[in-house]
Design brief:
Oligomer: heterodimer
Number of domains of chain B: 4
Shape of chain B: elongated
Distance between the termini of chain B: 26 Å
Mean pLDDT of chain B: 91
CATH class of the largest domain in chain B: Alpha Beta
CATH topology of the largest domain in chain B: Rossmann fold
Number of strands of chain B: 26
Largest interface: A-B, 43 and 41 residues
Helix content of chain B: 25-40%
Number of strands of chain A: 13
Structural class of chain A: alpha/beta
Distance between the termini of chain A: 36 Å
Largest sheet of chain B: 8 strands, mixed
Strand order of the largest sheet of chain A: 3-2-1-4-5-6-7
Radius of gyration of chain A: 31 Å
Shape of chain A: globular
Chain lengths: 548, 764
């Protein structure tokens, strides 16, 4: 079969760190598997501002740059260049040359003074003593004007800085500016800076679509997220991935928690509206979200489940007599590093990582993630059932004040640790060392990654009984062992307690499931996508580019 | 010990260093060398291996060798193992790996201890690293300590004391003979960079290499402990394959510019005849590489030379190969032998001199058991038992230790004046000395002075304030170990003496007894202690998972039960029968639910037993305005039957308490969570059964002593009431389930003291 080219459209904004994005990890897994197909080659389209971080990410993951192509927009918007230049200025720099020179002079002067003092107190000769004293006095007389001038200059500089700050602190120009921008805004429109940022992103996305439309040899395009309506400006056959639109099921939660999220949802809905062919990760999202809510044609929505997430390669140590002990030690070091880096107080920073035992729920704090139910269950387990594990979460409690307030109100600061910003290796280490992984999420695009991530490193997991999970966990006995009612904190607690007391039994049963699930590889996923893209390409007529 | 050459412990597992240094020691005349038979299973020990071959040359008893072979020579071998080592070995080489081992050497080894220094990365100094160690430091070894520098300049960045103790013992290669097999037929740059994923330093180094070698064909040697999909990484290869690589790859590039550390592989390359291109400014310059054609001032120059060599520039290749041989000379054992000889002679001479000293009369080790706050009741009793256990256990082990019991001065006065209470030292044998204490707070400057005076010149304060006990004599400085019975230390303890903690519970994790953050210093004190003694599995887990104490510091010891004598029961028919409720005013004692249960018992279940209440401060039980107690008085006042049947005895002296207990139908323990109460054990001694809340510590007490406790649910007053009624009706038969006196005495102090001694002797 001759070589076919397909495209991947990525239009992340300049602030996005691909290494920290879930989609970044997905892209890595996809491209690594795609590189094994000799009949297919992917072209990645991305804005210029993402090019370097994308290539760095892929290179760091061992994906050869020769296994895919990259096309980008030309240059970077001027406004972004100005912002980036300003942020570079803010980074601490080493002291300037004059400062360093001054420091050296001061140091030499102190040493000279100390020499004079030593001689003064040690001498027995009156003549020497007088000589030293006169010398010191003359030195003082000579230096005094210099020191006075230096002091005056410094004082003047400080006065100038004070006045400048005072002027900048004057409020009325700022207030006037805010009034003006408010007068020129529609109700509900975002703040000025955010608005400009989004406009810049959208404009770049459109430019990228233009670049893509000039590429003739790519037969079909795939967009792994529904964040970029400009994707629909591509004239070639298109396939858009819609993982989930979770706000639909948690309207009040998201309305209160993240007011700016509305704009994101509007963008996603615009993207869906302009698209005709979709792919998603579960039947649940296909039917409940795309077909029912967004009126997509069922035959236009394909379901391609993920492969397993195997975290073990990033932490499994080999080459030692006791590889298991070496792996554990490595994970403990990673955890210790994370505690020290992320810990917000000496209690966490100095915790002996080999001593800690914990439940683990790695997730952002969002209304659908059901963190409060887990916290209620945990507090009961700790204080009434006397389990002694801590609970480690990975979200930022400041994003959802209800979580932060619960932790404070129930005095759980020392037992519920929020390690926000874990690297992939630290995440794998946390999974490995956990007594149990827990996922109480009420809504996900597919079976939560927690299942395979935890089992890949030998940690059992208990999860919410939700449709996307039941699509994967089919055996009723296993469901009884590992699934709980996510609306009932007491059921959550009961399942966790059972799992802790029957850890080995649960792990053995789940290992069989993991073995079965791991038969589906990322190569299988790539094959499924290629089959869909082939199907789209066979249609061959360029699709009328949708109006964004 | 041999007359001229003592036995040596060479406590490293680095394969390449072992080849050179063991051969060198043998050349010098050492014939008996102990090598460790295990090493930490950690990525940083990838170059380590085990060698048993020297065991055949050791003339020590087989059982002693077995002990030494089984020990962990990188963390804490244990006191007994050190005794064996001290018996047979006088010289010890070790490396800087774990601070725990450093302190262990300082504490236990009695010979010459040589810290083998091969240089640290990123300009770090051994002095700075060792500052984190805490006392006892290597300084306490005095002239028995040596800094065995592998390169002559290493001590330049160290402290004056380190420089003073330096002995230059050069690093080398066992075989410096240049080989003639190199062909260079593979036009590839060979670099060595192990563990690019598992080690941050090498990860950074690899990123530099990749940047510097862009456009060149290269491979990376070195074991990779973590899997990587980078096709350039060779990973672990067999010895045969490694030699082939050295023969066939065209050139080695070494970009290390570390001032104090150099790796072995550049020398291996030179020995194999492979041309070495390296960046100047690092250790190779010091070793004679400064003017060599393979040296490069910049990456640009290095790239140019690499390019030439890969393109087949024979002249450059030959020039480099011919000239670089001189670098091997710097590792030649023949050159280093005289230097080693001189160094070792100094070490042995000083060791001999240090052993010729007047015999000082030694005294027993002295341990202070300190009650840091004015505890009474169970905690005070436990502290006294701990003191007795140490005294008894040390004598059982033939290692007599003196014990001093220390109590807060202010509280002793109050107790003396209160005739109703036992004195603070009541029941303590006369063999245990007594002192009182006040706490002194030192600011960081005073703390620094105190530590300097005590000989810890490198100690740096990390807190603004420190606490130290002041006994009005020597601030307990005459004691070798302090044990605080409780972790309630509001600031770090000045580490002028090692200390251990006896922690009975971490109640604050389960019950709101103080505000968030209040226990931060208590937890910090536990982490800094030498040992944390606990008496239940439950508290052990809390010490690990809540307090965050390192696993090796937490030691579980058996509960210490007091000696109880049996008292004659008086006939129950002549007195109003009663149950005895032993409690205090702490929130976890579950007073509200207990009172509710009693009301249920009397009002709904026709309870026939009175309830007598006893314990520390129980006289204030219905007068307290503490949040969890202030409504109790109203509840009792509202219930006529409760008012009639409930009798508060208050805090009783031990003999009166026992009389009350002996005549009770049963003992009642409705508390929610703590480290368990010995009142149930005492009750069993008296032939009195107990009804108790079910929680982990009580389950452990029940299991350890075989008490057959009757249980109730402390969260359900109705169920508690029902169990009270059941116990009333079955108290006589419940007595039959109690263990025999003989079974109880097997848990006595004499039987378990040795375990306490074993746990704490390691700290001396």
């Amino acid at each position: 079969m001759s070589l076919r080219h397909f495209g991947i459209y990525l239009a992340w904004g300049p602030r996005v760190d691909l290494q920290k994005e879930g989609l970044g990890r997905l892209l890595v897994a996809f491209l690594r598997a795609a590189a094994t197909r000799e009949d297919v080659r992917f072209v990645i389209a991305c804005p210029q501002w993402s090019r370097t971080s994308l290539l760095t990410l892929l290179e760091s993951e061992g994906i050869s740059a020769s296994s895919f192509d990259v096309v980008s927009t030309e240059g970077v918007p001027l406004i972004l260049r100005m912002v980036l230049a300003r942020s570079r200025e803010r980074r601490p720099r080493k002291p300037s040359l004059p400062r360093r020179l001054l420091a050296r002079i001061q140091s030499a002067a102190i040493r000279h003074r100390q020499r004079i003092e030593r001689r003064l107190v040690a001498t027995r000769s009156l003549a020497t003593w007088l000589g030293i004293t006169v010398y010191a006095l003359m030195l003082g007389v000579l230096l005094f004007p210099l020191v006075t001038v230096a002091w005056l200059v410094r004082a003047a500089y400080r006065a100038f800085l004070w006045m400048a700050r005072a002027l900048l602190g004057i409020r009325w120009p700022r207030a006037a500016f805010h009034q003006l921008t408010a007068a020129l805004s529609l109700p509900g429109e975002e703040a000025w800076v955010m608005r400009l940022y989004r406009l810049m992103e959208a404009a770049e996305g459109a430019k990228l679509a233009e670049v893509v439309n000039r590429i003739g040899h790519v037969k079909a395009w795939y967009c792994p997220a529904a964040f970029w309506p400009a994707f629909n400006q591509i004239s070639m056959p298109r396939l858009m991935c819609v993982p989930d639109v979770v706000t639909a099921d948690f309207p009040v939660g998201f309305a209160l928690a993240e007011p700016e999220f509305l704009k994101n949802v509007e963008i996603v809905e615009r993207a869906i509206a302009g698209s005709q062919r979709f792919v998603t990760y579960s039947s649940g999202v296909k039917w409940n979200t795309l077909v029912d809510r967004y009126s997509a044609r069922p035959e236009a929505v394909a379901v391609v489940p993920h492969a397993c997430w195997d975290l073990s390669p990033s932490i499994r140590v080999s080459g030692f007599l006791d590889n298991d002990a070496a792996t554990r030690k490595y994970c403990e070091q990673q955890l210790k590093q994370a505690l020290f880096r992320i810990g917000s107080n000496p209690y966490v920073e100095g915790f002996a990582s080999e001593s800690i035992r914990y439940l683990f729920y790695p997730s952002q704090f969002r209304p659908n993630k059901n963190v409060l139910t887990l916290l209620r269950a945990y507090e009961y387990l700790l204080r009434d059932r006397f389990i002694q594990e801590k609970l480690i979460l990975t979200g930022d409690p400041n994003r959802l004040p209800a979580i932060r307030d619960f932790i404070r109100e129930y005095r759980l600061e020392n037992d519920v640790l929020c390690l926000h910003g874990l690297t992939t290796i630290e995440l794998a280490a946390c999974y490995r060392l956990a007594d149990l992984a827990v996922n109480p999420s009420l809504s996900e695009g597919g079976c939560p990654f927690t299942l395979t991530e935890a089992l890949s490193v030998g940690t059992p997991v208990v999860m919410a009984r939700i449709p996307v999970t039941e699509e994967v966990v089919l055996d009723e006995t296993l469901r009884e062992m590992m699934l709980f009612d996510p609306y009932d904190w007491q059921d959550v607690a009961s399942r966790i307690e059972w799992a802790l007391r029957n850890r080995e039994l649960l792990l053995a049963a789940q290992s069989e499931l993991y073995l079965a699930l791991s038969k589906r590889t990322w190569r299988n996923v790539v094959d499924d996508y290629v089959a869909i893209l082939d199907g789209l390409a066979e249609v061959s007529t360029p699709v009328e580019a949708a109006i964004p | 010990m041999a007359d001229s050459f003592p036995r040596v412990m060479w406590l490293l597992n680095h394969a390449a260093a072992r080849k050179f240094e063991i051969a060198m020691l043998k050349k010098l005349g050492f014939s008996e060398i102990f090598l460790p038979k295990s090493f930490p299973q950690e990525i940083s020990f990838r170059s380590a291996s085990v060698d048993y071959s020297e065991d055949a040359n050791l003339t020590i008893p087989a059982e002693d060798l077995a002990i030494l072979n089984a020990a962990d020579w990188y963390r804490e071998p244990g006191r007994d193992t050190w005794e064996v080592a001290n018996k047979h070995f006088d010289v010890l080489f070790f490396i800087l790996s774990d601070l725990l081992f450093i302190r262990s050497v300082a504490k236990h080894f009695r010979g010459a201890a040589i810290l083998r220094g091969y240089g640290l990365l990123r300009g770090a100094s051994y002095t700075e690293f060792l500052k984190c160690s805490g006392p006892p430091t290597l300084e306490s070894l005095g002239r028995r300590f040596w800094f065995g520098a592998a390169y002559p300049h290493l001590a330049e960045i160290e402290s004056p004391w380190f420089r003073q103790r330096e002995v230059y013992l050069p690093a080398g290669l066992d075989d410096c003979a240049a080989q003639a097999e190199w062909s260079g037929e593979n036009p590839t740059v060979f670099i060595v960079c192990p563990d690019v994923s598992g080690n941050d330093v090498y990860g950074d180094l690899y990123r530099e290499y990749k940047e510097q070698l862009k456009g060149f064909r290269y491979v990376v040697g070195g074991a990779q402990s973590l899997a990587s999909s980078d096709p350039n990484l060779l990973g672990w290869v067999s010895e045969e394959r490694h030699r082939r690589n050295m023969r066939e790859f065209r050139v080695m590039f070494y970009n290390n510019t570390e001032p104090n550390h150099v790796h072995y592989h550049p020398f291996e390359a030179i020995r194999a005849g492979m041309p070495l291109v390296f960046l100047g400014g690092g250790m190779l310059d010091r070793l004679g590489g400064a003017g060599l054609p393979g040296r490069c001032k910049s990456v640009k120059e290095a790239r140019a030379k690499l390019g030439q060599i890969l393109a087949g520039d024979g002249k450059l290749t030959d020039d480099i190969r011919a000239s670089q041989i001189q670098l091997l000379d710097t590792l030649d054992p023949r050159k280093h032998e005289p230097v080693w000889r001189r160094g070792v002679a100094r070490i042995l001479s000083e060791l001999k001199a240090s052993r010729v000293r007047p015999v000082r009369s030694s005294r027993n080790p002295r341990i202070a058991v300190v009650v840091p706050r004015a505890y009474r009741g169970g905690t005070l009793r436990s502290a006294k038992l701990l003191a007795q256990a140490l005294w008894t256990g040390s004598r059982q082990s033939g290692e007599d230790a003196d014990v001093v019991f220390v109590y807060p001065q202010a509280a002793t006065q109050a107790l003396r004046d209160d005739e109703r209470r036992d004195k603070w030292d009541a029941g303590l044998p006369s063999t245990i000395a007594r002192r009182t204490l006040e706490w002194r707070e030192l600011d960081s400057a005073a703390a620094l002075r105190a530590m300097r005076y005590a000989g810890h010149s490198d100690w740096v304060p990390s807190s603004a304030h420190y606490l130290t006990p002041d006994d009005g004599v020597k601030q307990l400085h005459d004691c070798d170990l302090w044990i605080f019975v409780s972790d309630r230390l509001s600031a770090p303890v000045l580490p002028i003496r090692p200390y251990a903690l006896a922690v009975y519970d971490y109640l604050q994790r389960y019950v709101n007894i103080f505000s968030t953050g209040t226990d931060a210093p208590f937890l910090a004190a536990a982490r800094a202690a030498e040992r944390v003694l606990v008496t239940t599995h439950f508290t052990e887990q809390d010490a690990l998972t809540y307090a965050g104490v390192s696993r090796e510091k937490v030691v579980r010891v058996p509960m210490l039960a007091p000696e109880f004598g049996r008292l004659e029961r008086r006939s129950m028919e002549t007195d109003r029968p009663y149950l005895l409720w032993t409690t205090n005013l702490a929130p976890h004692k579950n007073h509200y639910k207990a009172i509710s249960a009693l009301r249920e018992y009397y009002a709904s279940l026709d309870g026939q037993l009175d309830c007598r209440v006893s314990g520390v401060d129980t006289g204030k039980l219905f007068k307290s305005d503490r949040a969890h107690l202030k409504f109790l008085a109203a509840i009792v006042a509202d219930s006529e039957i409760l008012s009639k049947r409930l009798q508060v005895l208050g805090e009783l002296p031990d003999n009166l308490y026992r009389r009350q207990l002996a005549n009770a139908a049963f003992l009642w323990h409705p508390g929610r969570i703590d480290n368990g109460t010995f009142s149930v054990v005492e009750a069993a001694h008296m032939g009195v059964p107990s009804l108790s809340s079910k929680y982990p510590a009580m389950e452990e007490i029940d299991a350890q002593f075989g008490l057959n406790l009757t249980w109730m649910d402390a969260d359900d007053p109705s169920e508690m009431g029902r169990q009270l009624k059941w116990m009333e009706e079955h108290a006589r038969s419940a007595r039959d389930w109690l263990p025999a006196e003989a079974d109880l005495t097997q848990h006595g102090l004499d039987q378990v003291s040795h375990q306490y001694w074993r746990a704490l002797r390691e700290c001396l």
